[in-house]
């Protein structure tokens, strides 16, 4: 801006020439300058007022619009959102396939002591012993009156116990926050979940770590904050799991068995819908491992995964299916069943003399050891071993549990003719019930290898074609006839088209040889046979029952009725409505036939030829 001088020289000179006062010119210019300054200040003030008025108008308009929107909307309860990653649980929940909680976290407290800060150590010891009866008063008194500066009292306490400790009024007793793992369904699926405990811990926090089962197998994933607390969805169904465990407990009691196990698997996906091992435990109060006796005596022992059993005649379908696949036989082919059969210095017998010849189908239906061995001889030891290896019977199952590697099958190092013979009818090779479930699922799946899993919805590559679809279908048809007219007639549940095979194997002694009066009774079921969808394996450890005054241990009269009751209970839960079924089917205790019938493996023995 160009400033106008207050005393312009030209005007001053002219004013002096005319005799005027030059100061008047300066005064006039000063007045004009002040007027211009005032005009500019007024315009700036007016602009600011306009801007402020616009801001106030916009703000009040926004508030009015929001109030109008809220007034016209439907009332709803506000929901708080957790945005801070710091308060996400340290360990993710575990749920079943339907989202029902199997394992979660609970905020609790621990109680610890600073003995040197105690006012009444002796009285405090007595008070704590009353709140926690498992504490020793004398030991607490010694610790509180000694030289200790710090000691744990309890690492997990309930709110009621916390209040009781607080009421003692002892300044030397302090509390620390804890996040503990709880299992709301107690012992249901306990072997699958495994359990958890505390790792690194301090007075203000504790690290929850898995110690068994899927808790340990997925420990890193469950503790990963990158998952933002997303739960681990297992493949099991809580309702199916509970139903299976209930029936197995009843079966153990009725059959006087030492233990039981059951596995329900989807044929197409390999997902395990239920897997039980009894006796079990409560993971909220996990027992200590046994230091003496057999591993299976402990409730921590998972019979389904860790158990290594000779599974008896359930293996007979494997050489028959392989021979069908190789074109060596067809279902009606005649097989030499003349007993006894000599291999080296051993004799192999059947429960009954089935005559000189059986059809390949009747070899399975009547469960002939001799005829099964004849079929295995057609195949040859090398091809037999290769087929069983493809079924996964030589390596631990790849199930997502830390116990899986301990279920290494006991496979003969050598495979001579006698081994080939005994393995063909389920002796000489020990595997877990889960191995059996995978092998049967492979047959039921049109011969495609099935991989078991405990994780719901996990995408897996398609399995290898172990068996031709035609041979697999014929094998399932043979298994169906075992139920309709063979050793497993009590497994027939109307409307569910159950197919399967029984197996009764003598239990081996730890020192060698076999018990004469202890068996593992197993039934491997596939249903419905016309469109296989599920495989069910049920096994009883040392079952024994009395029918018509005769003690019976065979699978056909022990584990088969239990399996039938399991199918009756879980069939409707699976959505498989039975066609023409009776709503008032008898319970497990009443499903036994009144007569004793021969079973496939009851009296089969390998007798040394002396």
Topology:
Elements: H1 9-18, H2 22-72, E1 94-95, E2 101-113, H3 121-131, H4 137-145, E3 151-157, H5 159-167, E4 173-182, H6 190-193, E5 195-201, E6 206-212, H7 213-217, H8 219-223, E7 232-233, H9 238-255, E8 259-266, E9 272-278, H10 317-326, E10 334-336, E11 341-343, E12 346-348, E13 357-359, H11 360-366, H12 369-379, H13 381-390, H14 417-424, H15 433-444, H16 469-485, E14 499-508, E15 514-527, E16 534-541, E17 545-547, E18 550-552, H17 559-570, E19 606-608
Parallel strand pairs: 1-7
Antiparallel strand pairs: 1-2, 2-3, 2-4, 5-6, 8-9, 8-16, 10-13, 11-12, 12-19, 14-15, 15-16, 17-18
GO molecular function, one term: penicillin binding
Transmembrane segments: 49-68
GO biological process, one term: cell wall organization
Question: Any overview of this molecule?
Answer:
With 610 residues, this protein is of the alpha+beta class. It has 17 helices and 19 strands. The strands form 6 sheets. Strands 1, 2, 3, 4 and 7 form a 5-stranded mixed beta sheet that branches. The protein starts with 8 loop residues before the first helix and ends with a strand.
**Main β-sheet description:** 5 strands, mixed
DSSP strand (E) fraction?
15-25%
Principal-axis shape equals elongated
The average pLDDT is 86
Percent helix range: 25-40%
The number of E-state strands comes to 19
Structural class by sheet pairing and helices: alpha+beta
Which regions are unreliable across 5 or more consecutive residues at pLDDT < 50? 77-89, 581-586, 591-610
Overall number of structural domains: 2
| Helix count, DSSP H or I runs of 4 or more residues | 17
Query: What fold name stands as the CATH topology of the largest domain?
Result: Beta-lactamase
For the record, give the distance between the C-alpha atoms at the N and C termini, rounded to a whole number. Answer: 132 Å
């Amino acid at each position: 801006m160009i400033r106008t001088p207050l005393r312009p020289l030209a005007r001053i000179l002219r004013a002096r020439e005319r005799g005027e006062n030059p100061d008047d010119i300066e005064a006039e210019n000063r007045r004009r300058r002040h007027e211009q300054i005032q005009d500019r200040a007024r315009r700036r003030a007016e602009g600011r007022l306009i801007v402020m008025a616009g801001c106030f108008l916009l703000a009040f308009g926004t508030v009015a619009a929001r109030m109008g929107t809220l007034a016209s909307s439907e009332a709803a309860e506000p929901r708080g959102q957790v945005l801070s990653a710091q308060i996400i649980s340290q360990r993710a929940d575990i749920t079943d396939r339907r989202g029902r909680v199997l394992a979660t976290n609970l905020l609790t407290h621990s109680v610890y002591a600073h003995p040197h800060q105690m006012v009444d150590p002796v009285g405090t010891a007595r008070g704590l012993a009353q709140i926690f009866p498992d504490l020793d008063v004398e030991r607490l008194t010694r610790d509180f009156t000694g030289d200790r500066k710090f000691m744990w009292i309890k690492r997990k306490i309930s709110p009621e116990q916390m209040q009781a400790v607080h009421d003692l009024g002892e300044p030397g007793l302090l509390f620390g926050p804890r996040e503990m793992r709880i299992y709301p369904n107690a012992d249901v699926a306990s072997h699958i979940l495994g359990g958890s405990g505390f790792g690194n811990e301090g007075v203000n926090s504790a690290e929850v770590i898995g110690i068994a089962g899927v808790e340990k197998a997925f420990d890193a994933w469950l503790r990963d904050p990158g998952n933002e607390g997303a739960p681990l969805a297992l493949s099991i169904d809580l309702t199916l799991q509970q139903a299976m465990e209930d029936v197995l407990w009843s079966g153990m009691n009725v059959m006087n068995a030492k233990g039981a196990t059951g596995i329900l698997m989807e044929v197409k996906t390999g997902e395990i819908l239920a897997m039980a091992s009894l006796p079990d435990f409560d993971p909220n109060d996990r027992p200590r491992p046994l230091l003496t006796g057999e591993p299976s005596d402990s409730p921590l022992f998972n019979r389904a995964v860790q158990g290594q059993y000779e599974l008896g005649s359930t293996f007979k379908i494997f050489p028959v299916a392989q021979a069908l696949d190789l074109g060596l036989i067809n279902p009606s082919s005649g097989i030499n069943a003349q007993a006894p059969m000599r291999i080296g210095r051993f004799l192999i017998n059947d429960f009954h003399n089935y005559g000189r010849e059986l059809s390949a189908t009747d070899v399975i239906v009547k469960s002939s050891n001799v005829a099964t061995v004849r079929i295995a001889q057609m195949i040859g030891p090398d091809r037999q071993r290769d087929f069983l290896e493809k079924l996964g019977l030589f390596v631990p199952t790849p199930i997502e549990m830390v116990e899986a590697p301990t279920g290494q099958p006991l496979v003969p190092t050598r495979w001579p003719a006698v081994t080939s013979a005994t393995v063909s009818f389920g002796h000489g090779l020990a595997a877990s019930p889960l191995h059996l479930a995978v092998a049967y699922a492979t047959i039921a799946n049109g011969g495609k290898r099935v991989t078991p899993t405990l994780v719901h919805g996990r995408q897996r590559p398609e399995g290898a074609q172990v068996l031709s679809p035609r041979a697999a279908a014929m094998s399932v048809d043979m298994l169906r006839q075992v139920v309709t007219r063979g050793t497993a007639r009590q497994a027939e549940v109307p409307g569910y088209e159950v197919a399967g095979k029984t197996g009764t194997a003598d239990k081996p002694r730890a020192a060698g040889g076999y018990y004469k009066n202890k068996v593992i009774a197993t039934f491997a079921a596939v249903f419905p046979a016309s469109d296989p969808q599920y495989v069910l394996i049920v096994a009883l450890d040392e079952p024994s029952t009395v029918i018509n005054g005769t003690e019976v241990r065979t699978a056909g009269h022990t584990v088969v009725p239990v399996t039938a009751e399991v199918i009756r209970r879980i069939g409707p839960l699976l959505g498989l409505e039975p066609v023409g079924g009776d709503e008032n089917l008898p319970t497990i205790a009443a499903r036994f036939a009144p007569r004793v019938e021969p079973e496939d493996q009851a009296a089969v023995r390998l007798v040394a030829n002396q």
